[in-house]
Give the backbone structure.
Amino acid sequence: MQIKIHRGVNQIGGCVTEIRSQKARVLVDVGSNLPNCENEIEVNIANISKKCDAVLITHYHGDHIGEYMQVSKDVPIYIGKQAKEIFTIFQNKMKDTGVTEITQDHIDKIDTFKIFKQGVPFEIGDMKITPIRTDHSAFDSYMFLIEANGKRILHTGDFRLHGPMGKGTPRTLKRIGKVDILICEHTTLSRQDENFMSEFMLQEEAISLIKSKKYIFILCASTNIDRIASFYHANKKAGEKLFICDIYQKKILDYVSKNSAKYTDYYNFYDVKSFDSELYKNMVSNGFCMLVRSNYFSKKFVYNPRFRNNLFIYSQWLGYLQGKTAEKDLVKFVPKKYTYLHTSGHATAEGIIEVCNIVKPNVIIPIHRHKLIRF
Ligand SMILES: [Zn+2]
Ligand SMILES: [Zn+2]
């Protein structure tokens, strides 16, 4: 078998990995470079994908799926079922706001994506591919075990062990056992400023924050379902204020609620309300938790003098707010005084070591990391 990391060895994001066996060729992820990425490695996805039998997507973050429009028409793209639906809602929102160049073609192409199931192997030529559901800041994320010609390769995609589904990954990997090659994300080894409380510890801290003020604004990624669940459950434990979002966010949460109902109640968000003017009086008198983002709708609440005495919780990577990776609109939107409460979507050094110790690879190929790893 042959492995070629087209992009994503010495940078975070822009991930494109090619794996070749005697009779098959697949790409794992077709990611875009993150904004402000220092490496300018150009990868011609159209050309590479033409020679491939399939594209496997680990998760819907742009640095793993962003170049999907470049994938040759006859090459099937595989993704998790819920990831496909959430990505469709997300791209539709992008199309409607007109902020990016998302057209109906982008939506139609997602419609052609094929679905795989957690733990159910499928075949591409002589390759056997097993998707392994994993915990990450994108819902319905996967690792892939790829077996062919007597060899086993595990591609981790982005993952962590300190989220609500994190404990399941070592259990599954123990069943899988030894692999020959581990292609593993190493994000946090080059981002030592990150804070590593578990998602449940974050939820505990959120309870006291929500109790501390009447009006709570929360900024986190609209597709980071586990983070939203943390605040949602924290709010229940804090006395249950109105939990409010916009129509787009409600669409995502309703989809997740509907699809998770069979398995768990943890992702049941049915009583989250999308804003309606009839709620306003109740919001003023009883307080609320509101999911916000940098748009006109959210600004109307965050900067409403009536809600001046609020607590604004910033719950995503600080790099979006500071330094070279800062996003202009976000910097403008987030109030000067905010409370930071976040934990990474990426495995800690200990998490990476744990995975290595379970699958005992002969070779580790680190990806999704900066060239300079600080110790
Ligand atoms: Zn990534
Ligand atoms: Zn990711």
